[in-house]
Protein backbone atom coordinates (compact mmCIF):
# COMPACT_ATOMS: atom_id res chain seq x y z
CA UNK A 1 0.00 0.00 0.00
CA UNK A 2 1.26 3.46 -0.96
CA UNK A 3 1.13 6.24 1.61
CA UNK A 4 0.78 9.82 0.41
CA UNK A 5 1.14 12.91 2.60
CA UNK A 6 -1.44 15.59 1.82
CA UNK A 7 -1.12 19.24 2.91
CA UNK A 8 -3.70 20.98 5.04
CA UNK A 9 -4.72 24.37 3.76
CA UNK A 10 -4.87 25.97 0.33
CA UNK A 11 -3.53 23.01 -1.69
CA UNK A 12 -5.77 20.32 -0.18
CA UNK A 13 -8.85 20.65 -2.39
CA UNK A 14 -6.94 20.47 -5.68
CA UNK A 15 -4.69 17.70 -4.30
CA UNK A 16 -7.74 15.56 -3.50
CA UNK A 17 -9.27 16.31 -6.90
CA UNK A 18 -6.23 15.13 -8.84
CA UNK A 19 -6.08 11.92 -6.76
CA UNK A 20 -9.79 11.29 -7.26
CA UNK A 21 -9.13 11.31 -11.00
CA UNK A 22 -6.83 8.29 -10.64
CA UNK A 23 -9.17 6.41 -8.32
CA UNK A 24 -7.96 7.49 -4.88
CA UNK A 25 -10.78 9.17 -2.97
CA UNK A 26 -9.74 11.10 0.14
CA UNK A 27 -12.56 13.65 0.00
CA UNK A 28 -13.37 12.90 3.66
CA UNK A 29 -10.58 15.33 4.52
CA UNK A 30 -12.68 18.17 3.06
CA UNK A 31 -15.42 17.56 5.61
CA UNK A 32 -14.89 20.19 8.31
CA UNK A 33 -16.48 17.90 10.91
CA UNK A 34 -13.96 15.15 10.13
CA UNK A 35 -11.16 14.66 12.64
CA UNK A 36 -9.37 11.77 10.91
CA UNK A 37 -5.73 12.39 10.08
CA UNK A 38 -5.29 9.24 8.00
CA UNK A 39 -7.55 7.44 5.56
CA UNK A 40 -7.24 4.22 3.54
CA UNK A 41 -9.13 4.53 0.26
CA UNK A 42 -11.65 1.88 -0.81
CA UNK A 43 -9.41 -0.13 -3.16
CA UNK A 44 -6.85 -0.58 -0.38
CA UNK A 45 -4.04 0.56 -2.69
CA UNK A 46 -3.29 3.85 -0.93
CA UNK A 47 -3.43 5.57 2.41
CA UNK A 48 -3.35 9.34 2.94
CA UNK A 49 -1.92 11.29 5.86
CA UNK A 50 -3.29 14.79 6.46
CA UNK A 51 -0.45 16.94 7.78
CA UNK A 52 0.70 20.55 7.92
CA UNK A 53 2.14 21.65 4.60
CA UNK A 54 5.58 22.23 6.16
CA UNK A 55 5.59 18.65 7.43
CA UNK A 56 4.81 16.95 4.11
CA UNK A 57 8.46 16.69 2.98
CA UNK A 58 9.46 15.51 6.45
CA UNK A 59 7.12 12.51 6.27
CA UNK A 60 8.37 11.74 2.77
CA UNK A 61 12.07 12.19 3.57
CA UNK A 62 11.82 9.86 6.56
CA UNK A 63 9.91 7.23 4.59
CA UNK A 64 6.60 7.41 6.46
CA UNK A 65 5.03 8.39 3.15
CA UNK A 66 6.21 7.35 -0.30
CA UNK A 67 4.56 10.31 -2.02
CA UNK A 68 3.59 13.83 -1.03
CA UNK A 69 2.05 16.97 -2.45
CA UNK A 70 3.57 20.24 -1.30
CA UNK A 71 4.27 23.77 -2.48
CA UNK A 72 7.60 24.52 -4.11
CA UNK A 73 8.06 27.28 -1.51
CA UNK A 74 8.24 24.64 1.24
CA UNK A 75 10.82 22.66 -0.74
CA UNK A 76 12.94 25.77 -1.27
CA UNK A 77 12.77 26.69 2.39
CA UNK A 78 13.39 23.25 3.91
CA UNK A 79 15.56 21.70 1.14
CA UNK A 80 14.58 18.13 2.10
CA UNK A 81 16.16 15.00 0.67
CA UNK A 82 13.22 14.04 -1.55
CA UNK A 83 12.64 13.49 -5.26
CA UNK A 84 10.84 16.47 -6.83
CA UNK A 85 8.93 14.60 -9.54
CA UNK A 86 6.57 17.04 -11.22
CA UNK A 87 4.84 20.40 -11.22
CA UNK A 88 1.14 19.72 -10.64
CA UNK A 89 0.23 23.14 -12.03
CA UNK A 90 -2.04 24.43 -9.31
CA UNK A 91 -1.53 26.51 -6.18
CA UNK A 92 0.31 29.23 -8.07
CA UNK A 93 1.88 32.01 -6.01
CA UNK A 94 5.20 33.81 -5.75
CA UNK A 95 7.81 34.58 -3.12
CA UNK A 96 8.27 38.32 -3.01
CA UNK A 97 9.97 41.17 -1.22
CA UNK A 98 7.45 43.80 -0.16
CA UNK A 99 7.75 47.21 1.46
CA UNK A 100 5.35 49.97 2.55
CA UNK A 101 3.81 51.70 -0.45
CA UNK A 102 4.90 55.02 1.06
CA UNK A 103 8.59 54.06 1.13
CA UNK A 104 11.13 55.11 -1.49
CA UNK A 105 12.46 51.59 -2.04
CA UNK A 106 11.86 50.24 -5.56
CA UNK A 107 14.24 47.25 -5.48
CA UNK A 108 15.76 44.98 -2.83
CA UNK A 109 19.15 46.53 -3.49
CA UNK A 110 17.85 49.89 -2.33
CA UNK A 111 17.07 48.63 1.17
CA UNK A 112 19.47 49.93 3.84
CA UNK A 113 22.45 47.71 4.73
CA UNK A 114 21.91 45.92 8.03
CA UNK A 115 18.20 46.78 7.91
CA UNK A 116 15.57 44.31 9.06
CA UNK A 117 13.47 42.00 6.91
CA UNK A 118 10.63 40.00 8.49
CA UNK A 119 9.79 36.56 7.10
CA UNK A 120 8.42 33.10 7.80
CA UNK A 121 10.78 31.91 5.07
CA UNK A 122 14.07 32.63 6.78
CA UNK A 123 16.27 30.51 4.50
CA UNK A 124 14.70 31.86 1.30
CA UNK A 125 15.08 35.43 2.52
CA UNK A 126 18.67 34.86 3.58
CA UNK A 127 19.50 33.23 0.24
CA UNK A 128 18.04 36.16 -1.70
CA UNK A 129 19.88 38.89 0.16
CA UNK A 130 23.14 36.97 0.10
CA UNK A 131 22.74 36.62 -3.69
CA UNK A 132 22.62 40.41 -4.05
CA UNK A 133 25.36 40.89 -1.43
CA UNK A 134 23.20 43.00 0.85
CA UNK A 135 23.67 42.34 4.58
CA UNK A 136 20.34 42.42 6.42
CA UNK A 137 18.93 41.04 9.64
CA UNK A 138 16.23 38.44 9.01
CA UNK A 139 13.52 38.66 11.68
CA UNK A 140 11.78 35.25 11.94
CA UNK A 141 8.01 35.46 12.35
CA UNK A 142 5.44 32.66 12.26
CA UNK A 143 2.33 34.81 11.96
CA UNK A 144 1.32 37.85 9.92
CA UNK A 145 4.62 39.22 8.66
CA UNK A 146 2.84 42.27 7.23
CA UNK A 147 2.91 43.69 10.75
CA UNK A 148 6.70 43.99 10.55
CA UNK A 149 6.74 47.17 8.43
CA UNK A 150 3.44 48.41 9.89
CA UNK A 151 4.90 48.46 13.40
CA UNK A 152 8.29 49.68 12.25
CA UNK A 153 10.05 46.49 13.28
CA UNK A 154 11.32 45.89 9.75
CA UNK A 155 11.85 47.80 6.52
CA UNK A 156 10.55 44.95 4.38
CA UNK A 157 9.11 41.45 4.34
CA UNK A 158 9.68 38.30 2.32
CA UNK A 159 6.48 36.33 1.95
CA UNK A 160 4.24 34.35 -0.38
CA UNK A 161 1.92 36.42 -2.55
CA UNK A 162 -1.06 35.08 -4.44
CA UNK A 163 -3.55 37.77 -5.39
CA UNK A 164 -1.72 40.59 -3.63
CA UNK A 165 -4.87 41.54 -1.73
CA UNK A 166 -3.32 41.11 1.73
CA UNK A 167 -0.39 43.34 0.79
CA UNK A 168 -2.68 46.02 -0.60
CA UNK A 169 -4.98 45.95 2.43
CA UNK A 170 -1.94 46.52 4.64
CA UNK A 171 -0.38 49.28 2.57
CA UNK A 172 2.45 47.18 1.11
CA UNK A 173 3.73 46.70 -2.44
CA UNK A 174 6.00 44.12 -4.09
CA UNK A 175 9.41 45.29 -5.23
CA UNK A 176 11.04 41.98 -6.21
CA UNK A 177 9.94 38.44 -6.99
CA UNK A 178 12.36 35.76 -5.76
CA UNK A 179 10.67 32.84 -7.52
CA UNK A 180 7.28 31.43 -8.50
CA UNK A 181 5.75 28.52 -6.62
CA UNK A 182 3.17 25.82 -7.34
CA UNK A 183 2.18 22.41 -6.02
CA UNK A 184 4.75 19.66 -6.57
CA UNK A 185 4.57 15.87 -6.41
CA UNK A 186 7.45 14.53 -4.36
CA UNK A 187 8.61 11.02 -3.54
CA UNK A 188 10.85 9.14 -1.14
CA UNK A 189 13.96 8.63 -3.34
CA UNK A 190 14.66 4.99 -2.44
CA UNK A 191 11.03 3.90 -2.70
CA UNK A 192 10.76 5.57 -6.08
CA UNK A 193 14.01 4.04 -7.33
CA UNK A 194 13.02 0.55 -6.17
CA UNK A 195 9.47 1.03 -7.52
CA UNK A 196 7.86 -0.39 -4.42
CA UNK A 197 4.12 -1.14 -4.79
CA UNK A 198 4.39 -0.13 -8.47
CA UNK A 199 4.99 3.43 -7.34
CA UNK A 200 6.14 4.65 -10.75
CA UNK A 201 2.87 3.52 -12.33
CA UNK A 202 0.89 5.63 -9.88
CA UNK A 203 3.22 8.56 -10.44
CA UNK A 204 2.60 8.27 -14.18
CA UNK A 205 -1.16 8.21 -13.57
CA UNK A 206 -0.94 11.38 -11.50
CA UNK A 207 1.23 12.96 -14.17
CA UNK A 208 -1.36 12.15 -16.83
CA UNK A 209 -3.85 14.39 -15.02
CA UNK A 210 -1.72 17.52 -15.39
Description:
By secondary structure, this protein is α/β, with parallel strands linked by helices. The chain has helices spanning about 10-20, 55-60, 70-80, 120-130, 145-150, 165-170, 190-195, 200-205; strands at about 1-5, 40, 45-50, 65-70, 85, 95-100, 115-120, 135-140, 155-160, 170-180, 185. The protein starts with a strand and ends with a helix. About 35% of the residues are buried. The mean pLDDT is about 95.
Global structural class: alpha/beta
User: Level of helix content?
Assistant: 25-40%
Strand order of the largest sheet: 2-3-1-4-11-5
Beta-strand percent range: 25-35%
Helix/strand order? EHEEHEHEEEHEHEHEEHH
CATH topology of the largest domain: D-Maltodextrin-Binding Protein, domain 2
Helix count equals 8
The major pleated sheet works out as:
6 strands, mixed
Distance between the termini: 23 Å
Please state the overall shape, judged from the principal axes of the Cα atoms: elongated
What does the radius of gyration come to? 19 Å
Nearest-integer average pLDDT: 96
Total domain count: 2
* CATH architecture annotation name of the largest domain: 3-Layer(aba) Sandwich
The total count of strands amounts to 11
Low-confidence runs (pLDDT<50, min 5 residues)?
none
Name the CATH class of the largest domain.
Alpha Beta
Looking at CATH, the homologous superfamily of the largest domain is Periplasmic binding protein-like II
Amino acid sequence: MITIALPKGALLKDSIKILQNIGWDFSVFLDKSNRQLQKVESTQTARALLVRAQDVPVYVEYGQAQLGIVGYDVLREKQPQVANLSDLQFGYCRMSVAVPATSSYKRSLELPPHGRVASKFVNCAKEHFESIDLPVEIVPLSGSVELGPITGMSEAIVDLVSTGRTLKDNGLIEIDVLYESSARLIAHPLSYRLNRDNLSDWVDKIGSQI
